[in-house]
Amino acid sequence: MKSIIRKFALGAMAAAAGMALMAPSAQAADEKFKIFLSMSYIGNDWQAEAANMLKAMALHKDYADKVDLQVQVAGPNAQKQIQQINSMVQAGADAIVVYPISPTALNNAVKNACAKGVVVIAYDSIISEPCAYNVHIDQKQWGIKSAEWLVEKLGGKGKVVMVNGVPGTTVDTLRIEGAKEVFSKHPEIEIVAEANGMWSQAVARTELSKILGTRSWDEIDGLWMQAGCYTANSMQSEAGIPDDKLKPCAGEASNGGRIQMLPVDTEVEGANGTYRPMGAPRWSSGSQNFTGALAFKLAVDKLEGKDIPQLTDVPQNIVTNENVKLCQEGSWAEMKAGCNVFQPAIIPNPGWFASIYSDLTPEVGLNAALVAQPEE
């Protein structure tokens, strides 16, 4: 990953300079803000896209001459992330943008960073230390709204399978809390199985296969999956269940899942197998992929002396069968006009997350999410 980051960073600097890239002088480097990205879990498409969009923001013409961005990955290990944050501070960080593996485990390291004048801003998942800034959607509301939709689809009763996210993160904890609050209000809703899907289509398939080892699809009425609705629909199709009998699924914003939501007669390019329109009953929303890029922008604003909110609560982008809209080319103008799912010919990976558009981050679009390149 480091070689890929270096490739894009060097390419953007060379283009900006209009000449062969030379190593910057110590003085030139000192004039730039030193910003670190600390990533924790990276085992899914969402994390890769969010990191790509942040890197693309750093390469945008408004920021390329201002910022030296460095990226480190801790993995799902709080102690390693603490060590990385401490090292970033010692290395002279002006700001640290972080996807925290825990809301509390990093607090002492973050407090120490703040005391040394470092701006610390978390995206998607939360840091509870008061000096940190946070950028995210209301994850508990995600859980509440998704569960309310599913309960309504089931008429208030039925057997539900829950496939959760990455344990320990505030995203997973708050979503489960919100969903179970809703389910508990409906005594005829029964949670018959629960597993950790790690926000991965592949893991979701493994866990759902285990669940189906002890019960059949006939014994499941609905699915609540932080990531995996695409996989669940595919598995049902593979089992011979017709499109008009698919179980309602509330979950993530994967492109494959949204393609499946489209009416069966929708013409799409590159569709094949289960990556095709099915009219699948779906509630689709996700943590917005642009939140890391937005956190980066806010960090620069703060370093330049501007006031930024302690909490930036990003609105959810909820897509259902009633408002799913196919993007033909994936241009910024199309997304601004309301398209929210991309042609399979454009996005061949069905697990790719489609929530990339925001008026808050016009500097980054489809190419940012795909290959870490900003808009012109």
The structural domain count equals 2
Strand content: 15-25%
| Biggest sheet character | 6 strands, parallel
CATH class category name of the largest domain: Alpha Beta
- In the CATH scheme, what's the topology name of the largest domain? Rossmann fold
User: What's the rounded overall pLDDT mean?
Assistant: 91
The sequence of SSEs as H and E is HHEHEHEHEEHEHEHEHEHEHEEEHEH
Rg over alpha carbons: 21 Å
Low-confidence stretches: 1-29
CATH architectural group of the largest domain: 3-Layer(aba) Sandwich
Specify the helix fraction band: 25-40%
CATH superfamily of the largest domain: Response regulator
Query: In terms of structural class, how would the helical and strand content be classed?
Result: alpha/beta
What is the straight-line distance between the termini? 24 Å
